Amino acid sequence: MVTSFVHTTHPARIVFGVGTLETVADEVSRLGRSRVLVLASPELAEAGDRVEKALGSLAVARFDGAAMHTPVDVTETALGVLRGAGADCVVAVGGGSTTGLSKALAVRTGVDQVVLPTTYAGSEVTPVLGETADGVKTTRSAPEILPETVIYDVELSAGLPVAIAVTSAVNALAHAVEALYAPDAEPVVDALALDAIVRLASGLRRLGAGVDDLDTRADLLHGAWLAGTCLGAVGMALHHKLCHTLGGSFNLPHAEVHTVILPHAAAYNASAAPAALARTARALGAADAPGAIFDLAAILGAPTALRDIGMRAEDLDAAADLATRNPYANPAPVTRAGVRHLLDDAFYGRRPAASGEPRAGAP
Ligand code: NAD
After folding, report:
1. Sheet architecture: strand order including 89-94
2. What is the reported pLDDT for 361?
3. What is the spatial distance between Cα 348 and Cα 360, in angstroms, rounded to a whole number?
4. Pocket lining for ligand 1, CB < 6 angstroms
5. 75, 98, 164, 226: which to mutate for ligand 1, most atoms within 8 A of CB?
6. The pLDDT of residue 319 is above 60
7. Distance 362 CA to ligand 1 centre (A)
8. Do residues 28 and 35 make contact, with C-beta atoms less than 8 angstroms apart?
9. DSSP character string of 185-196
10. Which helix (H) or strand (E) is 164 found in, with range?
């Protein structure tokens, strides 16, 4: 049977290696820009200093106020700094929160973006921006949101503490797992997703074995780039929808929520997307993908229960209502009862049943 598909490539330049931070001035010049606003966060002020030093006279301003969920008031303050300095480019160093600020500035002003990611969230390779105003998060997509250049520096990323690295890597894993059963899945993205899963699982296992060297961090960062590319290329499903709801409406931490939910979302879809789950399991080097993902997180000491990351039992019904209010594509039908049951399993941190075993409440 002939399989039809559509493949679109996003125009971004990717620089990957060890010590690549030192190329930042060349990369800005390559874009034809010469007045840089450096973006960082209080936790990453030191990395911001290194970037500023490497930029030399190209750096004309600095803003260290990036915050979670890209609050619009923070963006407006940064916009004042950008305009005051006459900047024509932003260079952002940090996780998804700093990348979010960079994107928010670019979509408002048209400045170019060079991003140096320090986590595995993957935002740097997507044309998507989520912003919050008055407690409400809205998401939009536009070509000018996509950063022009991404500099992945393995050495820089190695500064990410192991506990954050683990949940962030599972966050990346989630992009690849859901890409394999996306309604618009296609062969190039499938290949990227499978390679991402192999690299992320390998990096996580090495961290678990106490082997925290540059090869381990390179696997994780390389996997994160590929997984982020999947996130920017095809539609995500139940897992991302649930995490968005839990993070946005119940203020749970982004990467930790992904870590807890992924095994359960994968189990929910196992019987409706058996081929995608079988490919995921092979890439993980395991017999059963949901159980293997759960075990990987548990062995590494990452959270496996929503109740351990700030969720309250009395909010589970409201979360199930919110996550099923609007229809969206997902391999298994998204039912209120099915999602409520999933949330219960995730709340108590139950290991998901192996694929093929019946789950109460699942469609
Ligand atoms: P983050 O940027 O908030 O970073 C998580 C934590 O890690 C922070 O406390 C940060 O200070 C710390 N940190 C980061 N790098 C560090 C380092 N090298 N050393 C020490 N600490 C470090 O969170 P994130 O998980 O990277 O990104 C989550 C945010 O990004 C969310 O707001 C999410 O919605 C957004 N996001 C957007 C997209 C998209 O495509 N638009 C994709 C993924 C994530």
Report:
1. 13-17, 149-153, 112-117, 89-94, 36-39, 59-63
2. 47
3. 15
4. 41, 43-44, 68-69, 94-98, 100, 118-119, 121-123, 126, 128-130, 159-161, 164, 168, 231, 254-255
5. 164
6. yes
7. 32
8. no
9. --HHHHHHHHHH
10. helix 162-180
Tokens linked to 151 = 């500099």
Average pLDDT over residues 11-38: 98
Q: How far apart are the CA of 333 and the centre of ligand 1, in A?
A: 31
161 vs 139: CA distance, rounded Å:
29
Task: Answer yes or no: is pLDDT of 363 > 50.
Answer: no
Phi-psi region of 183 (alpha: psi -120 to 50; beta: other; left: phi over 0): alpha
- Asked whether the whole model's pTM tops 0.90, one would answer yes
pLDDT tens for each residue of 32-83: 999 999 999 999 999 999 999 999 999 999 999 999 889 999 999 999 999 9
CB of 140 closer than 8 Å to CB of 117: no
Closest protein CA for atom 11 of ligand 1: 43
Picking from 80-84, 129-133, 302-306, which range would have the lowest pLDDT averaged per residue? Answer: 129-133
How far apart are the C-alpha atoms of 46 and 251, rounded to whole Å? 28
Which residue has the CA at smallest separation from atom 24 of ligand 1? 96
pLDDT tens-place string over residues 242-281: 999 998 889 899 999 999 999 999 999 999 999 999 999 9
Pair 359, 295: CB distance under 8 Å: no
For the chain, list the domains and their CATH numbers. 13-158 (3.40.50.1970), 162-348 (1.20.1090.10)
Amino acid at 83: R
Return the ∠ at Cα 230 (arms to 182 and 108), rounded to 5°: 110
Q: Which string of b and e fits 12-49 if b means at least 16 CB within 10 Å?
A: beebeeeebbebbbebbeebebebbbbbbbeebeebbe
Residue whose CA is closest, atom 35 of ligand 1? 96
